[in-house]
Specification:
Blueprint (H helix, E strand, L loop, with lengths): L4 E2 L1 E6 L11 E6 L2 E2 H5 L8 H4 L13 E7 L4 H4 L1 E9 L2 E8 L11 E4 H13 L6 H15 L10 E6 L7 E8 L3 H4 L5 E8 L5 H13 L8 E4 L2 H7 L10
Parallel strand pairs: 1-8
Antiparallel strand pairs: 2-3, 3-4, 5-6, 6-7, 7-8, 9-10, 10-11, 11-12
Helix pairs in contact: 5-7
Length: 248
């Protein structure tokens, strides 16, 4: 005998006030109830770029896997996060084994969903970009384009970290690169992170993304980007100046 089947809705929430640090979040509703609001108020739900991906973490398969749905504003290590284990069992998708590293128990039951209805809702949410503002759309399309160019930016000894658009900076996007690559961090080798700020407008996002991609792949991105991560010692060893902090 199975539990009562529930209805899942994945709602994307964009803050009305674009204050610095404000982010977009995914709020899962079960039978219309915001489950994050019930058990986790320390921070927002995860960004759509983390959860709403084709074949992404919300996709259910026979092997159970854990997904983080929310994180404390001050980071998980400080005030916790909310995790759920997702698995498919025949015609059902089950959310269970709720966990918050900062608490002993999470007061949420197992949720059982019809597998077909569940997958339809996940696919709908993944495909829906109506909530995006122009810069966010440009950032998403530009990152997709650059990741499809297998030889870029490896030819410059770099790895694409991501392309971000922030609510409080509506006229620009930020591109991040790792040099020589993200793996150097875990291997305790010298590494640097570069940031490139790119201006955008309200013009057609697809055309802007295509134009920016062509400009970026035409040369060494390190020549126009600025070091924003790593350490002064790593910068010295890799032959780059470390940025001087401005005095207040």
């Amino acid at each position: 005998m199975t539990a009562e089947k529930r209805c899942l809705t994945l709602r994307v929430v964009v803050p009305d006030l674009p204050q610095r640090g404000a982010g977009v979040e995914v709020r899962p509703l079960v039978d219309g109830e915001d489950i994050l609001a019930e058990v986790f108020t320390e921070g927002p739900g995860e960004d759509p770029e983390c959860l709403l991906l084709p074949d992404g973490p919300l996709t259910a398969g026979p092997e159970p896997h854990e997904v983080r749905l929310a994180e404390a504003t001050c980071t998980e290590g400080c005030c916790g996060a909310l995790y759920v284990t997702i698995r498919r069992d025949g015609d059902h998708v089950i959310w269970s084994e709720w966990r918050n590293p900062d608490e002993d128990d999470v007061d949420l039951p197992e949720f059982w969903f019809d597998a077909r209805e569940y997958q339809t809702e996940v696919e709908r949410a993944v495909a829906d970009h109506s909530w995006e503002w122009p810069a966010r759309t440009v950032a998403r399309l530009l990152e997709l384009d650059l990741r499809e160019r297998a030889g870029w930016p490896a030819q410059w000894e770099c790895e694409l970290g991501g392309v971000s658009a922030w609510l409080w900076e509506p006229d620009q996007i930020n591109l991040f690169l790792f040099h020589p690559g993200r793996s150097a961090i875990g291997e305790d080798h010298p590494w640097l992170q570069f940031q490139m700020v790119l201006d955008v407008s309200n013009d057609d996002p697809e055309s802007q993304a295509e134009r920016l991609a062509e400009q970026l792949v035409a040369g060494d991105p390190r020549q126009t980007a600025e070091v924003c991560g790593g350490s002064p010692e790593y910068a010295r060893r890799l032959g780059y100046p470390w940025p001087q902090r401005r005095r207040a």
